[in-house]
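Quick one, T. Sequence first:
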Amino acid sequence: MAVGSTRRLLARGAQGLVVVALVATVVFVLIRLAPGDPFAATLDDPRLDPAVRARWRAAYGLDGSLATQYVRWLAALGRGDLGWSTSRSAPVAAVLAESVPWTLLLGGTSMVLAFAIGMPLGAWQARRRGSRGDRAVSVATIVGGALPDFWFALVLLLVFAVRLRLVPIGGAVDPLLPLDASPAARLADLLRHLALPLAASPLLLLGLVARLQRTALLDRLGADWVRTAHAKGVAPAHVFRRHAWRTALGPMVTLGGLAIPGILGAGVFVEHVFAWPGFGAVAAGAIAARDPHLVVGCAMVGTVLVVLGSALADVVGARLDPRLRDADAAERA
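Structure tokens:
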């Protein structure tokens, strides 16, 4: 068993590396085949000395053929160098290391809140299927999920930050916060800046979680083993918790695994509205500025999270659902 699990883990890791390499290569080629470059606005002046133009492109690794640039990029990647960001004037690794934690904080907290609220809400709907409360919650989650996130974020910003002035208008840290501020003061400042982005972010995912949990539970409640448990006189609450809800967690785990990479890109508009210094804003800015190395770095980070989220969903789902464990055992045999 241990050998088989190790082999599957190694195989999954190898597959993940291949996926990351393929995505990075495709993005690398596409961003360089697209017309223009990061210096189009300044270097395409006909009065500029061609030697100066050539030195600039050579300094940022944008000279030579596509194959030459790709080989040079691979060599730098082998040394752990993701390149230099032309739009941020900093190493790509440093830009990502600074922005990704902010997005993980906002997106991770949003995802936890969405599942913590959506799963009990979906379970409540399943136990009261067809009731007025069930229909009202279904309409509310559909409407909430259909609201444009940037519009909802702007409404929150105008009401709570501009008119009521209850929270800061943007950013993640008060620039006037003293350098010697206590940890409690820094935490309070962070929570004040996080309040509005956190209120706008989990809305869409919360509706998806609630609807998926309701559907999965309704499917399990009609299963043969649930009807058998009821026929044996098992308490309805026990049947619901042990026989229905536990086996209905598989789809939720899958959704959670898929939502992990989604937290990087789903908050682009929210981060932009609230000037949150996260990954989404960096990726959007890199594309707009035609920053090739930063665009490729963002694609690699997103792909790594997709691979990790998928692997995590498979592992946790197999532990929760006995049918998946049996399938894995049969596959190893």
